[in-house]
């Protein structure tokens, strides 16, 4: 949070669209006591870490997009899910990360009212899309494992769920277009993109933030937990029947989960766990703030920055996890590097010779 920590203002850059601002956005600081937010050392660390994550996330997710798009892996019905997940991660990479870094450097907002509304909408839209697509992947694994005979309809079912996920992401992020705007500080040369004045009461802003916290984190977490709990229970019951020596039909993988399907299941479980591990600390910090705003005065500024950067780490985890469980992705990357090396070796050395002559 790129603001003066002793005298914080709602006009400092927020750490997230649904995370705690520095003070309630309906609070108007007196001009005599208000201090212009500054680019602190903690914010500098945040910008540097965000840029490192941006480079890694951009390269890894673009490579994953190219690999999945080639059609080698994963299976056809799972491919749209992975493409959607990569697309959501790329939105987080190219919208949320650069915006957050630039905003913390400039401290105030220079993009005007329209850009303020659009970018705040895109930030929340990208976060919703990432969470909801993980829910769709969890529902797909749940249906495939518990109802394998209906896997023929998986492609159509997944397309419908993806349509619902993207549509809900748009609808739930749309309020950002109405509550965020460029606010100019009276008597000071300072403009910020904030919700300043959009809520007449403090509790209204708290309800708004809690609504997004529930729909963005709690509901997806409950659905994913339910799906994988039922899957684990199903697998456990199968092992119990095997140990008991019961004889039952093994039709179309109904009772015995194929190794390939189990490998995909493990991959999706790890992807979901990475989402939970990366974002849980930051959301817990948000809950603490919403009910005890004074906590900002007793917690170091760098804590908020570190937790937000840690949450963005989730965008880098998905391609790494996918590559760990998918040999074809690693083969595609190796082939790409080998091709570049061969092209570099075949390139005419005219430039190098000309440089030698000049030197």
UniProtKB/TrEMBL annotation:
| Gene Ontology MF, one | peptide binding
Q: Where in the cell is it found?
A: Cell membrane
Q: Which domain of life is it from?
A: Eukaryota
Question: Which Gene Ontology BP terms does the record give?
Answer: cellular response to hormone stimulus
* Keyword field contains Aminoacyl-tRNA synthetase: no
Residues passing through the membrane, by range: 47-69, 81-101, 121-140, 161-180, 210-233, 269-291
In the bilayer, the protein is annotated as: Multi-pass membrane protein
Q: What is this protein called?
A: Type II GnRH receptor
Q: Which organism is it from?
A: Takifugu rubripes
């Amino acid at each position: 949070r790129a603001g003066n920590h002793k005298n914080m203002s709602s006009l400092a850059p927020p750490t997230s669209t649904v995370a705690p601002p520095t003070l309630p956005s309906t609070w108007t600081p007196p001009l005599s006591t208000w201090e212009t937010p500054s680019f602190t050392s903690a914010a500098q660390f945040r910008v540097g870490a965000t840029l490192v994550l941006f480079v890694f996330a951009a390269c890894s997710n673009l490579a994953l997009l190219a690999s999945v798009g080639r059609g080698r892996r994963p299976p056809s019905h799972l491919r749209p899910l992975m493409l959607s997940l990569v697309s959501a991660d790329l939105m987080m990479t190219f919208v949320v990360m650069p915006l957050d870094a630039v905003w913390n450097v400039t401290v105030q907002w220079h993009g005007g009212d329209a850009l303020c509304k659009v970018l705040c909408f895109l930030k929340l839209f990208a976060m919703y899309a990432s969470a909801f697509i993980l829910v769709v992947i969890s529902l797909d694994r749940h249906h495939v494992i518990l109802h394998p005979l209906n896997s023929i309809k998986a492609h159509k079912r997944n397309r419908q769920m993806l349509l619902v996920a993207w549509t809900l992401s748009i609808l739930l992020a749309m309020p950002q277009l109405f509550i965020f705007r460029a606010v100019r500080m009276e008597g000071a040369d300072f403009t910020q993109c904030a919700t300043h004045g959009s809520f007449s009461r403090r509790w209204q802003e708290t309800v708004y933030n809690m609504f997004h916290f529930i729909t963005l984190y709690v509901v997806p977490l409950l659905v994913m937990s339910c799906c994988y709990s039922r899957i684990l229970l199903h697998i456990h019951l199968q092992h119990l029947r095997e140990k008991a020596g019961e004889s039952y039909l093994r039709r179309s993988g109904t009772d015995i989960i194929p190794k390939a399907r189990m490998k995909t299941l493990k991959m999706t479980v790890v992807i979901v766990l990475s989402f939970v591990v990366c974002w849980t600390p930051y959301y817990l910090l948000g809950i603490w703030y919403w009910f005890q705003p004074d906590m900002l005065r007793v917690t170091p500024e760098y804590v908020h920055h570190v937790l937000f950067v840690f949450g963005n780490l989730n965008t880098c985890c998905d391609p790494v996890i996918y590559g760990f469980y998918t040999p074809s992705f690693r083969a595609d990357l190796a082939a790409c590097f080998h091709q570049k090396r061969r092209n570099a070796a075949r390139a005419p050395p005219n430039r190098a010779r000309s440089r030698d002559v000049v030197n």
